[in-house]
Amino acid sequence: MLNHGNVLASIGPIARASQPYMRYERLIHPLRILNTLPLSHVFGQTMGLWVPPIYRAELHFEERLAAPRLIETIRRERISVLAAVPRVLALLKTHLEATLPGLTERAAGPKGTATGVSVPLRWWRFRDVHSAFGLKFWPSSAGAGHCRDHSKSSGMRLAWWWCRGTG
Fold this sequence. Notes:
Elements (H helix, E strand, L loop, with lengths): L3 H15 L3 H7 L3 E4 L6 H14 L2 E4 L5 H10 L4 E4 L1 H14 L3 H6 L10 H7 L1 H7 L5 E5 L5 H9 L3 E5 L2
Helix pairs in contact: 1-3, 4-5, 5-9
């Protein structure tokens, strides 16, 4: 049963852990979160109900999970954070690989791996991807018990931050 005490118990640790970083919040204000998770999902509740008030963030919901529509919404609304399941991240990856020629080869890098490449070089290498999403978009947050490595590594290769929440 969800009651006031349960909500406060869930919000308290997040609020305390975020306090050291709140001074940086003004650099990215307004923080905008695109939540594609249902509110019946625990991570969807966290990203949709509890995190936005802590960071004074705007919250956007998207019910249709079509990659072109998600990318257009992220760019148009200047979304900062995408909260999604790994399937949605894989959907975006597939769409980008289909529409941007040579993306898969660039993600693999000259030596077959993207490890050891500096962040500025990755930003330059994938400037077309960053242009598609907009420069304000930087992290993807996936809520799932099981995440495949390719989703995580693809986001890191494209030089945006990727984190995992469980639900």
